[in-house]
Amino acid sequence: MPRILFVIATALLLVSATSQAETSPAERLAEAVRFKTISHQDRSKVDGDEFRRFHDFLRTTYPRVFTQLEVESINEFSLLIRWLGTDAELPPVLFTAHMDVVPIEPGTEDDWQQPPFAGIIADERIYGRGTLDDKEGVLGLLEAAEGLLAEGFAPRRSLVFAFGHDEEVSGRNGAAKLAQRMREYGWHFAWMVDEGGMVISDNPILPGKSVAIINVAEKGYLTLTLVASGDGGHSSSPPKISTIGRLSAALVRIENNPFPTRLIGPVKAMLEAMAPYAEQPQRFVFNNLWLTGGMVANTMAKDRLTNSFVRTTTALTMINAGVKENVIPQRAEAKVNFRLLPGDTPESVVSRIKELVGDPEIEVSYDQWNQIPGVSDHTGWGFAAISDAVLSVYPETVVVPSLLTAATDTRHYIDLTDNQYRFHGILVETSQAKSAHGTNEYIDIQSYVNSIAIARKMLELAAQPAPANR
pLDDT tens string for the chain (470 positions)? Predict the structure, then answer.
């Protein structure tokens, strides 16, 4: 490195070290929330300057990461960071998170206890959009890496960080481009960790115990568009069946005929892992799913919180028809969103819905959501490393594999690694987890500090050769 560059880099490190000494991890996360890195369905509404300013903040706040590691901007707004290991024979491990957040629903701004982008710290909490999803994931990993670099930590195995910028709108311009660059480099990972799992403090199945949920699979994503076409005209002379009536009848048939329940591998593994800690008769039920599985699935289907674990879900999300109260529309459109259990395919869902609709006057179309991740190994080294990291901070926690009922950027990386896990080590209550895309999103300060400690331990374990018994 030329001497002038060395002097500049050293000065930046000293300035930032002083700055970090004056602030806490909570204050740095609060500042990150203030950048409105919002993903919109209408891409023209995305404010690129907010992402650029956020990148500048990251570079200033974590100077060791951005000066000592290999950093590359991908498709302008995503970041690819490689921490080169000393043993080139060991395949790297991938850690991912995303910088973008969802918008605030118009009209709900006054419902927030604190303004959503103010980054307020109060009541031992950090408030704001992104505190759970997913700026805590980005900053938690950077905090952990910065701390290890300050101590001179040298990984045996290379570690890679991939931070996308459009996960909330499919990741096609962020994670997909990051994955493309990784393929160009010829990288293949031992395992990866994305967002999704967390430590639940009030799991209803095990009262009084915290449960760390490491997701080994996620549901597929599919949206169907249903369009009914027919005669329009003046409302004084309506047709026998209107487009709205035809479409409404089809939607009722779809909603009244949910997909059948079934207990899939990751959910079975979750219940079996909980069995030793459950009270009777629950313990017997979970230990004998070969006998009780059908009953368990049907019971879970009755509760909104657990229904999505045992079936491909159906959600009527959008409907659009008509331009005036006295005009019969010639076209009525609805969108129906499905979250697919592993084993179901977009083709099987479309076939079932067309059969339920049973109306040739209704067109059913969809955009293919490719690359649905498979089920990863919950007995392998990657899962064990995450579990050990959790237990190093929360030793009394029950660690279980599970199914993520949402979708993540993981799908863009499935050809780059055999095992994909989803976990960021934050401790939350069930009700708090729902705020991630809703109102009053927040994270407890101690939960965030502990998540950094878990991230640090994950990096340390991932950076070593796999244990001999793995």
Answer: 455 544 445 554 554 554 566 899 999 999 999 999 999 988 899 999 999 999 999 999 999 999 999 999 999 999 999 999 999 999 999 999 999 999 999 999 999 999 999 999 999 999 999 999 999 999 999 999 999 999 999 999 999 999 999 999 999 999 999 999 999 999 999 999 999 999 999 988 898 899 999 999 999 999 999 999 999 999 999 999 999 999 999 999 999 999 999 999 999 999 999 999 999 999 999 999 999 999 999 999 999 889 999 999 999 999 999 999 999 999 999 999 999 999 999 999 999 999 999 999 999 999 877 688 999 999 999 999 999 999 999 999 999 999 999 999 999 999 999 899 999 999 999 888 888 999 999 999 999 999 999 999 999 999 999 987 76
Catalytic residue flag (residue 22): no
pTM above 0.90, yes or no: yes
Show the beta-strand stretches assigned E in 165-249.
192-194, 199-200, 211-218, 220-229, 233-234
Spatial contact of 197 and 436, defined as CB atoms under 8 Å apart = no
Tokens linked to 41: 């369905």
Q: Which of 406, 404, 403 is nearest to 263 (CA)?
A: 403
452: which 2 tokens?
């950094």
Active-site option among 50, 133, 136, 167: 167
Whether 355 is a known active-site residue: answer no
Please return the burial class of 46, using the count of CB atoms within 10 Å of its CB with bins 0-12, 13-18 and 19+.
Answer: buried
